[in-house]
């Protein structure tokens, strides 16, 4: 696909205009960070330079040939007993000059009590969500990459079930000599095949994101800045019960005046990764929207911050991340990445492809 056509598709206004921000869409679990790397990066990043397979879930253009035969398994302990796991595998097809990846994510909400309207216990049930994703990425000219991801979504809450299809489309520009990489992605374009209630279908959590990363030349440090929901300027939420000058317009809470700087920074997620020697990575990020919406008024603590550590060697990547949503409430994430072609003789299927930033 010529790059100019991909840019037109990404910026096509109909795709963004038909979608809405959080609280008015379904399948919110699509925004859960699938891996420790994503958690450590603040949940949003479309330009980071690295060899972690999960980066392609944020932007399919970040899927690279160096991830050939990588197998990744992740597990997250979320809140209120919620657990979710993710597995992904990548393969580079040399004849097609294309890198493919597939992944599965399962979210379980534990066992819940089933009651009727009068409160009588009828039994128990276990709600769950499931996403299957297939990505493909190719190089264009010397410094450009483009990629597409397709998702099949299925959700089951007792007798309420829903399924849907979604697509991610992204591009990336990388200048390895100067250490720059930029990315642009449109996520979760699509709709429901079947709704929970047969009466009306709901929109998906669409997002248009853009970001840039810079690897410093004389310091083992990589800096990233990512903007999300760039198609909508005001993404603030204000509780009318707690704040003055707040009005409700079309179901959204809107401040009558002020707060422009705060609103701008709610679009940003800032991240930094520091390499300790050859094998250890330390990652930190700050998500301003998360801090402003979830932190307690007088006890903000580390709300909005996330930290991660990774041990990366030729045959193994181990990662752990922790993200704070409120002062005393954080999630933990563990993951392992195995380049299978480094572990076993797979013949032509496992031709070794080393990492090239």
From TrEMBL:
Organism encoding this protein: Chitinophaga alhagiae
Name of this chain's protein: Type IX secretion system protein PorQ
Source organism, top-level taxon: Bacteria
């Amino acid at each position: 696909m010529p790059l100019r056509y991909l840019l037109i598709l990404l910026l096509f206004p109909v795709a963004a205009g038909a979608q809405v921000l959080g609280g008015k869409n379904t399948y919110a679990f699509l925004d859960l960070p699938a891996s420790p790397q994503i958690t450590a990066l603040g949940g949003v990043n479309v330009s980071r330079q690295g060899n972690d397979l999960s980066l392609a879930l944020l932007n399919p253009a970040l899927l690279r040939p160096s991830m050939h035969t990588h197998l990744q398994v992740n597990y997250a302990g979320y809140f209120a007993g919620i657990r979710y796991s993710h597995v992904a595998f990548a393969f580079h097809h040399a004849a097609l000059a294309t890198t493919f990846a597939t992944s599965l994510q399962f979210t379980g909400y534990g066992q819940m009590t089933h009651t009727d309207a009068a409160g009588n216990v009828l039994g128990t049930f276990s709600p769950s969500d499931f996403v299957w994703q297939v990505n493909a990425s190719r190089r264009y000219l010397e410094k450009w990459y483009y990629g597409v991801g397709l998702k099949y979504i299925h959700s089951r809450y007792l007798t309420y079930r829903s399924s849907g299809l979604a697509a991610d489309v992204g591009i990336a520009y990388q200048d390895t000599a100067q250490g720059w990489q930029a990315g642009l992605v449109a996520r979760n374009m699509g709709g429901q095949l079947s709704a929970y209630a047969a009466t009306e279908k709901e929109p998906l959590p669409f997002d248009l994101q853009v970001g840039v990363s810079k690897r410093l030349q004389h310091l083992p440090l990589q800096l990233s800045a990512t903007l999300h929901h760039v198609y909508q300027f005001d993404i603030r939420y204000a509780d009318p019960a707690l704040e003055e000058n707040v009005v409700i317009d079309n179901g959204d809470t809107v401040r009558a005046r002020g707060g422009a700087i705060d609103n701008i920074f709610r679009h940003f997620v800032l991240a930094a990764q520091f390499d300790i020697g050859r094998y250890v990575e330390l990652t930190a990020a700050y998500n301003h929207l998360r801090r402003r919406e979830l932190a307690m008024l007088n006890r903000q603590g580390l709300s909005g911050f996330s930290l991660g550590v990774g041990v990366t060697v030729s045959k193994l990547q181990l990662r752990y991340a922790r993200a704070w949503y409120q002062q005393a409430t954080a999630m933990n994430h563990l993951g392992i990445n195995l380049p299978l072609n480094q572990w076993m003789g797979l013949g032509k299927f496992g031709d070794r492809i080393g990492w090239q930033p």
